[in-house]
Amino acid sequence: MIGNETSQPGKTPEFVKGITTYFRGVKSEWGKISWPEKRQVVAETVFVIIIVFVFTVSVYLMDIIFKGLLGLIK
């Protein structure tokens, strides 16, 4: 047992009070969140996938070009 927090009957330890206060705050803030619409999430996800694909292809093409150029050096 640490300190007098748990040794007194009927008293809630400070740790438990802190956790309870935290989750009450989380619950009150949860209602303030403005969630995006499904259409917006889908559109942004598709956009990110396209950008990743374009950059992947670009890096692959640069790799092929540099391999070819370095292959000319002997």
Could you walk me through the main structural features you see in this protein, from its secondary elements to its overall organization?
The longest helix is centred in the C-terminal third of the chain and has 35 residues, at 38-72. With 74 residues, the protein is an all-alpha fold. The chain has a domain at 36-74. The chain has helices spanning 14-30, 38-72.
Q: Sketch the major β-sheet.
A: none
**Which structural category fits the helices and strands?**
mainly alpha
In helices, the fraction of residues equals: over 70%
Helix-strand string = HH
Helix count, DSSP H or I runs of 4 or more residues: 2
What are the defining features of this structure?
0% strand; 74 residues; 70% helix; 2 helices; mainly alpha
Q: Outline of this structure?
A:
With 74 residues, this protein is mainly α. The protein has a domain at 36-74.
Task: Give me the secondary-structure topology.
Elements: H1 14-30, H2 38-72
